[in-house]
Design a protein that fits this description.
InterPro entries: Cro/C1-type_HTH, Lambda_DNA-bd_dom_sf. GO terms for molecular function: DNA binding. This is Helix-turn-helix domain-containing protein. The chain has 73 residues and is mainly alpha-helical. The protein has a single domain, classed as Orthogonal Bundle (434 Repressor (Amino-terminal Domain)), CATH 1.10.260.40. It is built from five helices and no strands. The two termini are 22 Å apart.
Amino acid sequence: METLKIFGERLRALRDERHLRQADMAEVLQITLVHYQRMEYGKVNVPSLTLCFLADYFSVTTDYLLGRSDARG
């Protein structure tokens, strides 16, 4: 499975665990809803600073988000 697809799936799962909407996440990241949706669908590369922010926000590692590890912390 490709990295962007894994990233999107894990991002969605983490968002769902917190009962957040895609629009909520777009607001947190200060991006458009469409751009956030593309992140979850694995259609765009994510800047490294955004990746780090998301890892901190969800208390997981960047390796977990990218599918390089199954360990969250």
